[in-house]
Amino acid sequence: MRFLNIIFLLFFLLNLTSVKGEEQDRINNITKNLRCLICQGQSVYDSDSEFANSIKILVENKIEEGLSEKQIYNYFKKKYGDWILYDPGINKNTYILWILPLLIFLIGGAIIYKKLIKKI
Amino acid sequence: MKNKILPFSVIIIFGIIFFIFYKSLQNSNIYTPDKNISSDIPSTNFKDFYSNIIFNSLNFFQGDKVYLLNIWSSWCIPCRQEHNFLMSLKEKKEIILIGINYKDNKKNAENFLKELGNPYDKIFIDNNGTISIEWGAFGVPESYLISNNKIIKKYIGPLNQQYVDEINLLIK
């Protein structure tokens, strides 16, 4: 019986650490996508500034409150604007960035296709 | 006709790329936060500096009053610079000064206020910096002018005479 109890306790502890580890992974993933606004070229994850450390705690709190990754990004976007996100969505400032490569790819493809057709 | 399409489209593509790069050359790479904002105050739980009683920001701020919420700390040198301006604002009856003590040691904060004077009508504690982040702060010092439960102006960095004049003009 005692042996069983020890096994049960061990199983419980291992499970607990893996849950904690998963949460830390989520925090890391989110903070890697957030820009440290007072640092030069660092993400919140990389930085050890007061600003970044506070954001790390807040991200942890928000995860504990049950917010999804997207909701957390939206929360920070509302507070600090698009600049805080490393992966901004399409809006009037970024649409050229998203559309231009596609446009160049299509036009380039069309040119190559035409040349190939000519050769055949 | 067919032969003309290729050079024409190449010129157009290069023209577009040149235009984008030329336009972005004129933009500043330095990030400047938007200071003229008009957003609702966030819902945060404040802990009183002296009594440790917890207040919710939405219940605490009254719509008919004007507040200046100032984030400060005893270890922050620019906070010392702006302190005289806060003391001058204290004399104005139209504005209520709220202090948020950012990541500070209570004893040091008390000494700071004893040394330079206490301009605040109410002080709250932000031990881990999360309250300041909820308010959209970048660091200390930072001040927010609040009216009708909205943040109408954000002052990043220490207050100066120009900012104080502007606040005086806005609260009239």
Separation of termini of chain B?
Answer: 70 Å
Strand fraction of chain A equals under 5%
Shape descriptor of chain A = elongated
Give average pLDDT of chain B, whole number. 89
CATH-derived architecture of chain B: 3-Layer(aba) Sandwich
Structural class of chain B: alpha+beta
Broad CATH class of the largest domain in chain A:
Mainly Alpha
Structural class of chain A: mainly alpha
Q: In terms of per-residue confidence, which ranges of chain A show pLDDT below 50 for 5 or more consecutive residues?
A: none
The third-level CATH topology of chain B is: Glutaredoxin
What does this protein structure show overall?
- With 120 residues, chain A is mainly α.
- Chain A has 2 domains: 2-88, Orthogonal Bundle (Helicase, Ruva Protein, domain 3); 90-120.
- Chain A is built from 4 helices and no strands.
- Chain A has helices spanning 2-32, 50-65, 69-80, 95-119.
- Chain A starts with a helix and ends with a helix.
- The relative contact order of chain A is 0.08.
- By secondary structure, chain B is α+β, with helices and mostly antiparallel strands.
- Chain B has a single domain, classed as Glutaredoxin.
- Chain B is built from 6 helices and 8 strands, in the order H-E-E-E-H-E-H-E-H-E-H-E-E-H.
- Chain B has helices at residues 2-26, 57-60, 77-90, 106-116, 130-134, 161-171; strands at 39-40, 45-48, 54-56, 66-72, 95-102, 122-126, 142-147, 150-156.
- An 8-stranded mixed sheet of chain B has the order 1-8-7-4-5-6-2-3.
- In chain B, strand 4, helix 3 (77-90) and strand 5 form a beta-alpha-beta unit.
- Chain B is elongated, with a radius of gyration of 23 Å.
